[in-house]
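Writing this down once: the sequence line spells out the residues, with the fold written below as integer tokens. I am pasting one below:
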Amino acid sequence: MDEDTASPPSDQNGGDEVGDDTASPVAEVSGDEVSGDDRGETPERATGPVKAPPLTANDSRPARPQQPAADGNGIRVKVGSQTFVNYSNVRDLRLGATAIEGVVFRQVVGAPLKEGKDVPFRTYRSDNPEEETKLIAELEKTNINWKYPQSPSVWRPYGPMFVISGLFLLFFFLMLRRLGGAGSPMAFGRSRGRLYAQEDLGVTFDDVAGIDEAVEEVREVVDFLRSPDKYQRLGGRIPKGVLLVGPPGTGKTLLAKAIAGEAGVPFFSLSGSDFVEMFVGVGAARVRDMFQQAEAKAPCIIFIDELDALGKSRGTSVVGGHDEREQTLNALLVEMDGFDSNNGVIVMAATNRPEMLDQALLRPGRFDRQVLVDRPDIRGREDILKVHVKAVKLDPAVNLTEVAAISPGFVGADLANLVNEAALLAARKNRSAVGMAEFNEGVERVTAGLEKKQRVMNEDEKYRVAYHESGHALVAYSLPNTDPVHKVSIIPRGLAALGYTLQRPEGDRFLMTQAELESRVQVLLAGTVAEELVFDDISTGAQNDLERATEIARSMVMDYGMSELGRICYRQSNRSAFLASAGEERTHSFSEETAQQIDNAVRRVINNGLTKVRDILTHRRDALVALAEELMVVESVDAGELKRIIEQNSARPRVVPGTGGVAARRPNPDVPAEQDETPDLQAGGAS
């Protein structure tokens, strides 16, 4: 197509062929930027080599031309003074919405174009539909590469808005999942209860030990679910609710799992805190959804752990206005026993703070039964130990009855931890089996804490701690109403204990007498009295002893009526039945004069205890010194060694004169009856 580079015939506006040699082709046609709207977005269409007769046009154009941009065999473009360029001289045409862009790559008349140098150009595009159709037809006949833009989408201006909205919705969705824990924003009102099948739990009544009475109470519920006709034929009905109460770690949740494993019915488990949310109405909606799911699978069991998080007494909130927790509790009350109460749905719950529950929740018709899951006695502890040692390799010499005896007050969780600690200690010592030594050490580790052998004391502090603990042990050994001393040690344990005297009761105790409480106060005061007698000074190590002794003395006066003020309780306590809370709220209603009398009575209990402790340590100072020297050498003394040291360094019987008159009811086994001085001690009874 090289012959097409000649200019068009002279009869087509021959003046168009006259060029100005001084004009710069680049200054007029290059360097123009094309706006985004003028650029096509979808390529591209190629045409063949057929040419049409060229046409000419004016070389001067307004800003928005009305003449066609191309006619026949050429396109109007200003290159120097040349305004008409044959199609064969241009390439890479881009047809924008309002302009046409391309490149002139061949010499044209009147425009000095260097060989091999392209000159970009830009010309206006006609907005006449007929001219537009004609231009496209002409381009399709050539072999020039050209691009034709598609019309921009009507949604294109809204694209950024859609992106920003999508990011905002994604952020909001993630925040809802973080705050609410639900799978989607629409799941706020859905219950979080988990449905368990019988084979999923794997726990039966055979795995529950030490709480036989509680098992018998709930076994009847399981039997009713299995064979309801047995009870319905006599007019009986199934209990709607069973509340398990007891101290932490006694096995309330384990008992609920055993019920689910034995009953063979659907079992929904959730926590009381699952109903509490930051959004109003969510808790009540979850309660209703939970019972709807349960009714669809009736008969079934719903178990709510830590019910006190949901069922706290109404009207106790310190925040004014409507409490969301009360709304949730009201929904639970209606579902358990309302006009539309569900038949075949048994609600079981566990709590260790029953005194905080709303009275409407505890009435018959909602929670018909309250089952006490209490601390196990010595026989129960032995049964629990038998369950936990099944997976442990025991030494044949291990006596589980003895282990149960040295662990009074332990609940099921404590005993499980004890067995695990004993196994870890045996493994640390490379033993082939777990023996009694590991169980004894495990009890000390659970009760007193971990030994701190790397906590090095100087010689003076070590002597002071030795006499301090010797005073505790000697007074506990000498008084008639104390628990036997099991071990004395000056090895630091736990967080702050530099030494300890371990006493173990001979059996389970449920009551304490006035003499026993006074003996406890005296044992606690013995450490600081021993320091005072030996060093003529006291230390800060007795702070916890003094705190506990003062609390016992104050309870004797204000709670138990064990003073000359009479059998009056001066303190109303909101103390939990199963939790020992340091911040428990206590109220009192008495005059300032009575408060002064209470303080005087407490001071008398403490002062009398100090007097008796000084008498004991003064009479048995040799034993005190011998025991302290022994502790400086061996650091730990057991019960047998303690008894030998005291008997070798004391000419008097175990009970020191003037320490109390209750010894007549508890004879001293170390002294023959005809030599026992106990009857002579009654004159020095406790005040």
Summary: The first strand starts at residue 45 and ends at 46. The radius of gyration is 48 Å. The first helix runs from residue 25 to 29.
